[in-house]
User: Which sequence fits this backbone?
């Protein structure tokens, strides 16, 4: 019985497994293999195997800076998304219909627009003769053009805008699961409204905040379009650095190395984080 | 001077009146149930007492103090919610200790008191469990301990047993009532389960469409309901329309019954109610002849549906160990004087 059920399970998952193996696994393995080849500017990709690319990236302070910037950016974007998204989801969950539906649509609306279009919008806003400059000059803060293009702050703002809906959805989902009577219960037991929020609501929303953080962090680390447009060449992140190695320098093996290292770092961080979260909340939630 | 009193309490939601002109006095240590079908305003009343809803008008007095507009965290009442509303991220002990913590009780003392409260509800060995690791009955006890540990002047129970299975519910009724009597806490229970109200309360308030229909002790309520609604809602009953013939006789369907001293004018219409267990069913002898149409065995008793001159009736008879009446059998039906309740025709 068990073995035939097992076989049926294998058979039924087979199409999906083959699909992912062929279309996701194979390119990743090829990228990994590519990263183990040497490169010569005249001869192209050389057939011999080497770890030189890894030694290059791991030993070069130029790449250290790019990796640090990427993970710093991801951490900052995640923190800001929590600070904006969690209260936003809480307010949304307290609204009555029809306002609830309307504001949920407003929050999720940006997801309906292409990331490239939205980022170009931010570029118009941030640019030297853009709206930001007009506002700053109009209010008398500055006589010079104000530009956030090619800055860390500009990337952060644009990425937060792109990613905050994911945090809202995630926190919203866990707020929906809270028994509103548990808040009433705390209130009648003598807790003030603020204490109820801090001691009862927030801990119950924590799984949503944590899973939202994972989503936002992972998406920021691997974000390409926004850093490419707002950060450009001057403010490279890992994804744009890999892209440049492939398409500008044509050093494919080095680009592949950067991509593999990004993947490994991302997986390590997220798995570690998930482990911590699971250990912390295993007893509390199904 | 009563301990808790509601004075002309009203609650309106827009156009809809959920509770209308409710006035009720509850003595210290009393167990009062608010009984009624869903939508009768019983939960709304409880939430106003708890402070979770603002009354539209009227007053709530606790021990002579007007608490009508006091927020719930300043009222200090103990509440057991229908869903139990435990804090899923806290252990049973922390759940119970929460109210004490909010009162500024020191850690050692509150843990000690919370432990004692859990032992009181027989959960001493489960105090470090989280709500999701407990059964429905255990969660219910944690909720009860959490409400009692703060030594509230009034304990409010919102359908506390409705999520339990039938057997456990019966055990908990008895246990809850004994605990309440032991502690002597004034208690208000909201329920739609008439058996629950009858078995636990000192007094029952039957509510219908936001108004109080009758306030009485369980036995009085059962034996002397003031309206067809109460007699039908509390316990099972047979209701029929009747016409007054003269001072001592009424007519039901085509059947003339002797009903002395009904005090109604001849020709008036009224409703009669008789409880199924008031009947005596015998194989032969005096009494109205009826046909047994259905016989259902309930263990402790038999439920029969019989048809006679008065129409269809439900009759319950205790199980004496002997075989009951069979379907299709003819039997004789009797009832004692005073078993019939009369209601003037509802307008």
Assistant:
């Amino acid at each position: 019985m068990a073995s035939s059920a097992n076989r049926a399970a294998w058979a039924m998952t087979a199409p999906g497994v083959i699909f992912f193996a062929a279309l996701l696994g194979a390119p990743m393995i090829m990228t990994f293999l590519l990263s183990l080849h040497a490169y010569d500017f005249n001869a192209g990709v050389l057939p011999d195997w080497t770890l030189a690319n890894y030694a290059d990236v791991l030993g070069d302070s130029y790449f250290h800076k790019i990796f640090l910037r990427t993970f710093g950016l991801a951490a900052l974007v995640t923190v800001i998304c929590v600070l904006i998204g969690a209260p936003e989801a809480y307010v949304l969950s307290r609204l009555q219909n029809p306002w609830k539906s309307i504001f949920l649509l407003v929050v999720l609306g940006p997801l309906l627009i292409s990331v490239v279009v939205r980022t170009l919008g931010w570029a118009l806003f941030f640019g030297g003769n853009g709206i930001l400059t007009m506002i700053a000059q109009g209010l008398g803060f500055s006589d010079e053009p104000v530009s956030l293009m090619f800055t860390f702050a500009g990337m952060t703002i644009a990425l937060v805008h792109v990613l905050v809906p994911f945090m809202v959805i995630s926190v919203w989902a866990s707020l929906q699961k809270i028994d509103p009577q548990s808040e009433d219960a705390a209130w009648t037991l003598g807790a003030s409204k603020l204490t109820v929020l801090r001691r009862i609501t927030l801990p119950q929303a924590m799984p949503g905040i944590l899973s939202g953080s994972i989503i936002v962090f992972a998406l920021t680390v691997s974000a390409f379009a926004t850093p490419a447009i707002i950060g450009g060449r001057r403010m490279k992140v890992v994804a744009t650095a890999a892209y440049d190695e492939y398409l500008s320098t044509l050093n494919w093996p080095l680009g592949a190395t950067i991509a593999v290292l990004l993947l490994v770092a991302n997986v390590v961080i997220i798995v570690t984080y998930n482990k911590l979260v699971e250990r912390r909340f295993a007893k509390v939630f199904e | 001077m009563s301990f808790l009193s509601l004075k002309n309490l009203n609650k309106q939601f827009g156009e809809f009146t959920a509770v209308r002109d409710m006035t009720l006095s509850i003595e210290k240590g009393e167990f009062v149930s608010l009984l009624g079908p869903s939508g009768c305003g019983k939960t709304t009343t409880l939430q106003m007492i708890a402070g979770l809803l603002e009354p539209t008008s009227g007053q709530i007095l606790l021990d002579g103090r007007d608490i009508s507009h006091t927020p719930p965290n300043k009222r200090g009442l103990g509440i057991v919610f229908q869903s139990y509303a435990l804090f899923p991220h806290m252990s049973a002990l922390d759940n119970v200790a929460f109210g004490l913590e909010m009162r500024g009780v020191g850690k050692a003392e509150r843990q000690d008191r919370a432990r004692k409260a859990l032992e009181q509800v027989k959960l001493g060995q489960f105090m470090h469990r989280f709500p999701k690791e407990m059964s429905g009955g255990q969660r219910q006890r944690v909720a009860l301990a959490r409400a009692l540990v703060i030594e509230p002047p009034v304990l409010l129970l919102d359908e506390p047993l409705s999520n339990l299975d039938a057997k456990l519910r019966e055990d908990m009724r008895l246990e809850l009532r004994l605990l309440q009597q032991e502690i002597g806490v004034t208690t208000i229970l909201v329920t739609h389960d008439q058996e629950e109200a009858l078995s636990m309360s000192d007094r029952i308030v039957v509510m219908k469409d936001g108004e109080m229909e009758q306030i009485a002790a369980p036995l009085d309520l059962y034996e002397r309901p003031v309206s067809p609604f109460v007699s039908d809602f509390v316990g099972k009953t047979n209701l029929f329309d009747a016409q007054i013939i003269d001072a001592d006789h009424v007519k039901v369907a085509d059947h003339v019954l002797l009903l002395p001293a009904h005090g109604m004018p001849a020709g008036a219409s009224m409703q009669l109610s008789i409880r199924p267990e008031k009947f005596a069913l015998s194989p032969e002898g005096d009494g109205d002849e009826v046909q047994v149409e259905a016989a259902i065995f309930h263990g402790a008793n038999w439920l029969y549906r019989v048809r006679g001159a008065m129409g269809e009736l439900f009759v319950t008879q205790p199980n004496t160990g002997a075989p009951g009446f069979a379907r299709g059998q003819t039997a004789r039906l009797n009832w004692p004087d005073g078993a019939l309740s009369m209601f003037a025709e509802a307008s």
